[in-house]
Design brief:
Distance between the termini: 47 Å
Oligomer: single chain
Radius of gyration: 15 Å
Largest sheet: 7 strands, mixed
Helix content: 25-40%
CATH architecture: 3-Layer(aba) Sandwich
Order of helices and strands: HEHEHEEHEHEE
Number of domains: 1
Shape: globular
Strand content: 25-35%
Strand order of the largest sheet: 3-2-1-4-5-7-6
CATH superfamily: Vaccinia Virus protein VP39
Structural class: alpha/beta
CATH class: Alpha Beta
Number of helices: 5
Number of strands: 7
Length: about 180
């Protein structure tokens, strides 16, 4: 019997990610990617003409993702171990979509660090690029001002299945669009 991670990766993630806007050919960041449970389906969606930067500070998760990439020959995922650095090692205005699921949290960042990370996300976003978040342990009302203050405009809200801590649940996913002033 498949577990929730298997169901997410083989079926649900594709439906959820395409519903919130991922498309073939995009350049995507999975910020706080963990072992790649969302980065891998995102790479399938963006295809050979797209690219996924899987950003994570946990060395073990990067190792696990790297092993999967090697085993399955997925050439359009680039794992990036930030070692906790808040500056994104990517050029300005190059990213179509940033996924930040269960990561823009006070548990991981102070308020100042969170504001800085979101500003970095805006810096690397193309004009009209998307920031797609799943704020599992924080109210969207608490982080929306940081997101809009960094130059993102609120978009759509979806209630969809999401993998959270290895378990499928329904969660609210919010989209934001970068203004052209990156």
């Amino acid at each position: 019997m498949p577990n929730d991670v298997d169901i997410w990766m083989s079926e649900t993630a594709h439906a959820v990610l395409t519903r919130v806007g991922l498309k073939k050919g995009q350049t995507v960041i999975d910020f706080g990617c963990g072992p790649g449970y969302t980065a891998i389906p995102a790479a399938v969606i963006v295809g050979e003409t797209g690219q996924v930067y899987a950003i994570e500070k946990n060395r073990l998760d990067i190792f696990r993702l790297g092993r999967f990439i090697k085993t399955f020959g997925m050439e359009n995922i680039t794992p990036i171990n930030t070692h906790g650095d808040l500056d994104l090692p990517l050029d300005s205005g190059t990213i179509d979509c940033i996924l930040a699921f269960d990561v823009l949290l006070p548990y991981y960042f102070s308020d100042a660090e969170l504001a800085r990370v979101i500003k970095e996300m805006h810096r690397v976003s193309k004009p009209a690029g998307s920031l797609i978040i799943y704020p599992s342990h924080v109210s969207i009302d608490d982080i929306r001002p940081l997101i809009t203050g960094a130059g993102f405009e609120p978009g759509e809200r979806f209630t969809l299945p999401i993998l959270h801590n290895g378990t499928m649940e329904r969660g609210e996913i919010f989209t934001f669009t970068a203004d052209g002033n990156g």
